[in-house]
Design goal:
The chain is of the alpha/beta class and 164 residues long. It contains four helices and seven strands.
Length: 164
């Protein structure tokens, strides 16, 4: 399966990667974002949504657990569900909230802290790992891994060249 790694030097790099991902999106994708607090999960999601045409405020769904957004992909309306499961105490909360119904062939689901829902969460098409760079005091290291055919298609469409 395709695998992609890069270093994002600053916020502009995060925005550029978000824009590249927005251009590569496919309806029905499930994207899991992994990383410590402050690693840039919400910033990457915000950049992706704005690049995909969402005009409004994109906030972290830390307290609401999920925020819906409407975007266009190839002139087709697509709903993006942005989850933040940080405050979940158990995978049962994910099931009890009815969140599993959003994972389908047409809705894009972006999930921060997927480990909080563990086995209750449908498997991702793409896993994204963000970490504070061990090379320098600035920037983030990013690893994207396709975990399905749909994820492979998305990463094959990804056109990203970081500013060095």
């Amino acid at each position: 399966m395709p695998h992609f790694t890069t270093h994002l030097h600053d916020e502009a790099g995060t925005n550029a990667l978000g824009a590249a991902l927005a251009r590569a999106l496919l309806p029905g994708l499930a994207i899991h974002l992994h990383g410590d607090l402050g690693a840039g999960k919400t910033a990457l999601t915000r950049a992706l949504l704005h690049a995909a045409g969402y005009q409004g405020h994109v906030k972290s769904p830390t307290y609401t657990l999920v925020e819906p957004y409407a975007i266009q992909i190839d002139k087709q309306a697509v709903e993006v569900m942005h989850f933040d499961l940080y405050r979940m105490a158990s995978p049962d909360e994910f099931l009890d909230a009815g969140f599993r119904e959003y994972f389908n062939h047409s809705t894009i689901c972006i999930v921060e802290w997927p480990e909080k829902a563990a086995a209750a969460l449908p498997p991702p098409d793409i896993s994204v790992l963000l970490s504070v760079s061990s090379v320098s005091d600035r920037g983030r290291d990013v690893e994207l891994q396709a975990l399905s055919d749909k994820g492979s298609q998305c990463l094959a469409r990804l056109k990203f060249a970081p500013n060095l």
